[in-house]
Amino acid sequence: MGISEMQPISIRKAALSDAKAISELGTHVWTQTFGHTVSPEDLKTYLTTSYSPSAIETDINNPSKDLILATTPSNEIIGFTLMTKGSSENCLASFTNYVELQRIYVHPDHHGCGVGKMLAKAVEDLARQQGFENLWLGVWEENAKALRLYEKLGFKAIGTKEFLVGGQIDTDLVMVKRL
């Protein structure tokens, strides 16, 4: 189903009342995408730390973070993105005035419909409005689908960073886009 065939998608900032639905979506997408790469114990710990309703509420209340949603006309949350100010990586030393696109998740039923592009545009617009010049992200080096999307959106790989889940260390590519 192409985006023109879908119901209209709305983009809005998250509210505390959205925390449970965001938690469920984040848990579902992370588990489906990465769950097979970690032990069940590490998966449970990571999801509790990062995607529990209370963790999502903390993100929504954090003034250094902006959580943006993609919703259907019935207000079903089908995607979200998290922009984080103040995060850094060593390979960003030659860049100034940057902000992190920490998460961009779309429910698998809506992949290929343009929702990810809509969320990326929303976070880019917000970053520009807040005066940032560069947007960076870390993406698992084995997530080919996400890498293709980010490259199409104009992100360029500039280095790597470690991503730790439990005792497992994975490598993320660090990518940057000039806004």
TrEMBL record:
Entry keyword annotation includes Transport: no
A GO term for molecular function: acyltransferase activity, transferring groups other than amino-acyl groups
One Pfam family it belongs to: Acetyltransf_1
CDD domains membership: NAT_SF (cd04301)
InterPro entries, alphabetized: Acyl_CoA_acyltransferase, Bact_Acetyltransf, GNAT_dom
Keyword Acyltransferase in annotation: yes
PANTHER family the record matches: AMINOALKYLPHOSPHONATE N-ACETYLTRANSFERASE-RELATED-RELATED
Name of the molecule in the record: Acyl-CoA N-acyltransferase
